[in-house]
Amino acid sequence: MYEILNKIELNKSVDRIKILAPMIARNCKPGHFIILRVDELGERIPLTIVDHDETTIDIIYQKLGYSTRLLSTKGVGDTISDVVGPLGESAEIHVVNNILAVAGGVGAAPLFPQLIAYYEQGVNIDLVIGARIKDYLILIDEFKAICNNVYMCTDDGTVGFHGFVTEKVNELLKSKIYDHSIAIGPLVMMKYVVIMNKKFSLKTDVSLNPIMIDGTGMCGNCRVSIGGKTYFACVDGPDFPGENVDFDELLARQDYYKKEEHICNLELKYNEKK
Fold first, then answer.
1. Is 215 domain-assigned?
2. I want to staple 109 with a disulfide (CB 3.0 to 4.6 A). Which of 28, 60, 115, 218 is the partner?
3. Same structural domain for residues 102 and 203?
4. Where is the domain boundary, 87, 107, 139?
5. Domain shared by 68 and 160, yes or no
C-alpha cells in the first residue's frame, strides 16, 4: 500500500497528489512514469512523475475516466493499492543554450521535470502554455520560477494570448532563435507544433504518454511508427523526436475505443448514483 501524503485540487478537472514511495523516488528521472492501481480490483493506469524528493513522488492526473475519477475519491492518509516504477526511458536533456517549450493542458505535468533539468543546466527557457480557459492552466507559478518567459494562451482569451499555442509559437519563432524545442500535450497540438518548428529548422522532442495504457509493452496499443519503424511508447519512450512520429496514425488510433470509453463512463455515473 502507498500512502497519499498531500492532495491539491488544481482545478475542477485536475488533482495533484504526493505519494510515499521511497524506492521510486530515489531512481526516477525526467520522463519516467509510474503504473498504479487504485485498489485490488482496479485497472492499471500510467501517470508521469511530475516531481520528487528522496521519499515521495508527485503525480498530476485529469479526472477523465473511471480509474482517475476513482482515484480522486482518495484523500490524505488514504492508500493506493499498487504503484510500480519508474518506468519508460528517461527524456534526453540536450546541451543547448536556448529552448522553446510548449505545453497544452495537462501536458504541463510531464514537461515540468524536463524544464527543471534544463533550468539546473543554466539554459534560457521560453514556455508557451495553453488551455481552453484560465482555470485549466496549471503549474504557472512553478514554471515562472524556472523559465525566463512564460507565455499563457487561452482559447477564450480569459488570460494571456487569445488563441492557440501554435499561433504564439509562430510569433516567437519569427523574432527569436532557439536551439531546441519540447512540446507535450494533446496529439493534435504536438503535431502542429512540430510542423511549425520544422519551418524554422527547429527540432522538437514530443512525449507520447497520452497513448499509453498498459505501460509494459504487452498490450500493443501504444505502438507508434517512428521514422518508418514500430516502437512502443511505454517501453521505448515516451519521448521521441517529433519529426519522425507518424501523428496521423496515432490520431486515427485514438478513435478506436471511443465506444468502450463511453460505456465505462456510463457505468461510473450509474454506480455514483447508487
1. no
2. 60
3. yes
4. 87
5. no
Per residue in 161-209, pLDDT (tens digit) is 999 999 999 999 999 999 999 999 999 999 999 999 999 999 999 998 8
20 in Cβ contact with 2 (< 8 Å): yes
Q: Domain holding 83: CATH number?
A: 2.40.30.10
Q: Is the pTM of this model over 0.85?
A: yes
Q: Cβ–Cβ contacts within 10 Å for residue 63, how many?
A: 17
